[in-house]
Amino acid sequence: MNFENDKNLWFQKFINHRYLITTKWFEDEEDNYYEFVYIADIKENNKIKYEGACEIYNNHLILYDEFWD
Q: pTM value?
């Protein structure tokens, strides 16, 4: 995983000694807000980037869209 030059990157949880969950947000020049969830599978050495937000409950990852007006 490469998080170089990433601002506003937050650690969320390490699930089942395998999945590293982080989130990131940024705002563009037009004040549009974007939020992403990164799911890194440490065992398989790959990651997924999801546009939206997450909550973690009892080691279950809940993904959802974040809408801003």
A: 0.81
